[in-house]
Design brief:
With 181 residues, the protein is mainly alpha-helical. It has nine helices and two strands; from the N terminus they run H-E-E-H-H-H-H-H-H-H-H. Helix 1 packs across helix 3 and helix 2 runs parallel beside helix 4. The longest helix is centred in the N-terminal third of the chain and has 31 residues.
Length: 181
């Protein structure tokens, strides 16, 4: 099985956990602040805070428990969990504090060595993250020197002409920082 297939298999495992953790967080926050009006009168939505908080913590811990062992292995110099690490970075969905976890992953990946297949996949992940990464974008873009290739440079040039401001700004910043303008 190729590395790409391993990563895709891990995405299938991780993505539903991201969605569940995100949904539990959304429900917890929406129930705390949500009142609704009906016929001019306000109604409180029945809300079991402890149950919602417990569900939120359980789902978030489950998502984290899937990535933490792979991150610990990577920090110790073992690459067995690399497909899960790449899958975690590739998933667009977020959950509470997942951006911080992605930053930790990127710091650990800076010290890793990759083969060509892994570099190509990491390059794709970086390009994909230009459009949706939040606070972790700076950490993800710091991986560019590990993979700098012709495909990435072409994609960054293309994205620097994007009609979407934040994507264009990110692409221009990357061009200046890593490709000399």
């Amino acid at each position: 099985m190729s590395f790409r297939e391993d990563v895709e298999k891990e995405i299938v495992i991780l993505e539903p956990k991201f969605k569940e953790a995100n949904e539990a967080h959304r429900l917890l926050n929406s129930r705390i602040t949500y009142n609704y009006r009906r016929n001019g009168q306000a109604y409180e939505v029945p809300f079991d805070r402890d149950k919602s908080l417990s569900l939120f913590m359980k789902k978030t811990q489950l998502a984290n428990s899937l990535i933490n062992p792979a991150l610990d292995e990577l920090k110790s110099g073992e690459y067995r969990g690399l497909p899960r690490i790449f899958a975690y970075l590739a998933i667009k969905d977020k959950y509470f504090r997942s951006g911080y976890k992605k930053e930790k992953i990127c710091r650990a990946l800076k010290k890793a060595n990759f083969n060509e297949e892994q570099k190509l996949l990491l390059e794709e992940i970086i390009i994909k993250n230009l459009g949706f990464a939040g606070r972790e974008f700076k950490s993800i873009s710091s991986l560019i020197p590990k993979v700098t290739g012709i495909v990435l440079k072409k994609e960054i040039t293309k994205l620097s002409e994007s009609p979407i401001d934040f994507i264009r700004n990110r692409a221009e910043r990357i061009q200046k920082q890593y490709f000399g303008g």
